[in-house]
Specification:
The chain has 205 residues and is of the alpha+beta class. Helix content is 63%, strand content 18%. The protein contains seven helices and five strands. The strands form two sheets. The chain has a three-stranded antiparallel beta sheet, covered by helices on one side. A two-stranded antiparallel ribbon has the order 4-5. Strand 1 and strand 2 form a beta hairpin. The chain is extended. The relative contact order is 0.10.
Length: 205
């Protein structure tokens, strides 16, 4: 019973540098019981999961890219351009607040919240889930930062804004890739049509 309740605290994975290469090791724990079903020992099996972790990371990146492509396809160039300009304006206003004010009172946080909340709302309207999620996380960080010192507030808020900006740039880069493949991509109404070949070219570029 105690093992079942505490098994979750056992280390399942750790990294080790061997010959200047970072290895990921997976640990599998098995209890050894006595005649009364009490745990008397623990047996641990260690396996090298470095390549598996690399494959998982690559698969995760590709899935994210395909998700973003699917989110971008229904959006016209004008709508996406307007969205990017608007989002970058709100982010720059947040950065200006950080650089110009030393007063971390209610109005300062209200400005940050309004801008980030607007980015989140606009992102959800277009179905840009990764940006919306990053903006939502930023709002939570802004709220937590109220109780921190000014220096801590500035660093955490800056990191949150940078993360939203980085995700926005991911969307911009993928959208540019969609537009570059104009031989296989055609505008249709509010969005664009793109062939499987173009998607494959984007994923391998």
């Amino acid at each position: 019973m105690n093992y079942a309740m505490n098994a979750h605290i056992l280390i399942r994975e750790y990294q080790l540098r061997v010959n200047d290469k970072l290895k990921t090791l997976a640990l599998d724990w098995s209890p050894i019981l006595d005649a009364r079903q009490n745990v008397v020992k623990l047996m641990v099996s260690i396996r090298d999961s470095t390549e598996l972790k690399a494959f998982e990371h690559e698969a995760g990146v590709k899935k994210r890219e395909l998700d973003i492509i699917a989110q971008l396809l229904p959006i016209s160039v004008k709508k996406f351009t307007d969205y990017v300009v608007s989002s970058e304006t709100y982010l720059n206003e947040c950065l200006n607040v950080l650089s110009q004010t030393g007063d971390w009172s209610g109005p300062t946080f209200n400005k940050l919240f309004r801008n980030m909340h607007t980015i989140k709302g606009n992102s959800r309207t277009h179905g840009f889930n990764y940006i919306a999620n990053a903006a939502h996380e930023a709002e939570a960080i802004f709220d937590q930062a109220r109780s921190l010192s000014p220096n801590q507030q500035r660093s955490q808020i800056m990191a949150a804004i940078d993360k939203v900006s980085a995700v926005l740039q991911d969307y911009r880069q993928i959208y540019r890739s969609l537009m570059v493949h104009t031989e296989t991509a055609m505008g249709q109404g509010d969005g664009m049509w793109i062939s499987r070949e173009a998607v494959a070219a984007i994923r391998t570029s």
